[in-house]
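Memo to structure team: turn this sequence into structure tokens by end of day. - J.P.
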Amino acid sequence: MQLIQGQSLIFNMSQNKKIIKNALIDSIAAVAYVALISVLLTNSRQLFGQVNSVISGIAFLLTFVFSAALMGIVIFGKPILWYLDGFKKEAVKLVLYSMGFLFVILVLVLLTLIV
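Reply from structure team:
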């Protein structure tokens, strides 16, 4: 019985490492996308010139909607699939780890603004 419990503990540790790795990859992908959009918006005048039409508002709002949908898929897509497949605890852990990594990155970015 103890051997089975030991094997279970090893399995859980390797499973947690997999969840943490997935969360880190998802968080890095989200930050990379946000950085790309930020660079695009910061340099939009140089890239597209002065645009004074309704098209600029449409482009901004479509970018916002697309970004929300994409980040929803990146952060919540895999956990939803895991949850529906019956891996409820793992799905919740993945969301929490992803949000934790994003929070740490947010704090680091805010600290660069202060310093």
